[in-house]
């Protein structure tokens, strides 16, 4: 039987929930039945991309407004892991962000680079009431 | 954020007593380091032995500390990186920027 997992979470637009969402992502990775790679590494990477994507949604797209909500879905289907992070903002196009200049030692700008490095496909698009960052990783 | 700050001769040892160094708490570490720089303390070891997870904000706070220390002719060195944390420094090439030691003793002795 094909393994399908879908996790759907909504939290207030506050960084104190980063740890909670990251840990849920780690637990999903550890629960996968058929994944044959390094499970602990996958768990860490899912925690990381969730943390980076949520931080961007909270601080940039939702502009730190604590009344707003961040909606996250984690779906495992057809050997693809898809994470979607929905914001309620005007958009912050992470896909147009340039790669960091490593030698310049900037304090910011590494988050999107990390997401792009660890995931196979990353898109940012408009949806009802905001935008969604979609990140896909093939689990083969 | 829980940190333990100790003077070890001319060097300040900051032990981060958190499992995560992320966008939620890294600003506090940055502030703690800025306070030390303002007091004229420019040689720092940040021990990450208890940190299991670091994100780009955590890395950014350490880069900020490194740049501030260097600008004052001091240095900021790291110790006790767990394997997954070390892999983040490698992914972002920051392992070429920081001096990284297995433990605090080696890091403190290197000044």
Q: Could you characterize what this model shows?
A:
The complex is a heterodimer of chains A (140) and B (111). In chain A, a hairpin with a 2-residue loop joins strand 4 and strand 5. Chain A starts with a strand and ends with a strand. Chain A has one domain (5-138): Heat Shock Protein 90 (2-Layer Sandwich), CATH 3.30.565.10. With 140 residues, chain A is of the alpha+beta class. Chain A has 3 helices and 5 strands; from the N terminus they run βααββαββ. Chain A has a 5-stranded antiparallel β-sheet with strand order 1-2-3-5-4, covered by helices on one side. In chain B, the strands form 2 sheets. Chain B has a 5-stranded mixed β-sheet with strand order 1-2-4-6-7. A two-stranded parallel ribbon of chain B has the order 3-5. Chain B starts with a strand and ends with a helix. The relative contact order of chain B is 0.19. In chain B, 40% of the residues lie in helices and 25% in strands. The longest helix of chain B is centred in the middle third of the chain and has 16 residues, at 56-71. Chain B has a single domain, classed as STAS domain (Transcription Regulator spoIIAA, 2-Layer Sandwich), CATH 3.30.750. With 111 residues, chain B is an alpha/beta fold. In chain B, helix 1 packs parallel to helix 2. Chain B contains 4 helices and 7 strands; from the N terminus they run E-E-E-H-E-E-H-E-H-E-H. In chain B, strand 1 and strand 2 (11-16) form a beta hairpin. The radius of gyration of chain B is 12 Å and the shape is globular. The interface between A and B is medium-sized, with 27 and 21 residues.
